[in-house]
């Protein structure tokens, strides 16, 4: 099993805390593309969680351990069980946590691959999930990521 790069020490801490707490989550975005295509640089961490009450409580419990990085007043206003909610974690944590509907999350999670994060097993979105997400985005970065992922599929 390969190690997943997460950028900052704080992002590693966040992912380790999520995993240790038993939160269901999936690494997507640039960090996931980098997992498959190491030459693809990334500058933040994108994570999705299911829009479920248990997942929301687990996420809230973990995020409360980062009081200097998370505005808990703002967090209180986010319905963590509502799909398409987004929590942007700035300052030291350069991370976005996206709340996805349960069906989408379950499908993506089922296709995900296992990776290591400081000795803990975490899930990284599959190439097919990443490609599907990227195809819905109309910008140069997404088109470049599609090209990189497709090229990586022909290398092996």
* Overall pLDDT level: 85
Distance between the termini: 16 Å
User: What is the domain total for the residues?
Assistant: 1
The CATH topology name reads Beta Polymerase, domain 2
User: Based on helices, strands and strand pairing, what is the structural class?
Assistant: alpha+beta
- What is the share of helical residues? 40-55%
Write down the Rg. 15 Å
CATH class: Alpha Beta
Pick out the low-confidence regions: 69-74
Major sheet description: 4 strands, mixed
Order of helices and strands: HEHEHHEEHEEHH
CATH architectural grouping: 2-Layer Sandwich
Strand order, main sheet: write it out: 1-2-4-3
Principal-axis shape: globular
The DSSP helix count reads: 7
User: Would you count the extended β strands for me?
Assistant: 6
Strand content: 15-25%
In terms of topology, how is this protein built?
Layout (H helix, E strand, L loop, with lengths): L8 H12 L5 E3 H8 L8 E6 L2 H11 L8 H5 L9 E4 L5 E6 L1 H10 L1 E5 L2 E5 L2 H9 L4 H16 L1
Helix pairs in contact: 6-7
Describe the structure using short key phrases.
two-stranded antiparallel sheet; 6 strands; 156 residues; alpha+beta
């Amino acid at each position: 099993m390969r190690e997943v790069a997460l950028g900052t020490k704080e992002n590693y801490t966040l992912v380790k805390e999520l995993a240790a707490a038993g939160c269901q989550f999936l690494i997507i975005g640039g960090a996931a593309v980098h997992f498959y295509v190491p030459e693809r640089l990334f500058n933040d961490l994108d994570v999705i969680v299911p829009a479920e009450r248990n997942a929301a409580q687990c996420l809230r419990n973990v995020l409360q351990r980062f009081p200097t990085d998370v505005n808990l007043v703002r967090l209180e206003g986010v319905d963590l069980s509502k799909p398409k909610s987004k929590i942007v974690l700035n300052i030291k944590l350069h991370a976005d946590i996206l709340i996805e509907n349960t069906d989408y999350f379950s499908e993506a999670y089922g296709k995900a691959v296992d990776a290591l994060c400081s000795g803990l097993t975490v899930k990284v979105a599959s190439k097919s999930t990443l490609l599907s997400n990227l195809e819905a985005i109309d910008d140069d970065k997404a088109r470049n990521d599609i090209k990189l992922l497709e090229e990586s599929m022909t290398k092996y």
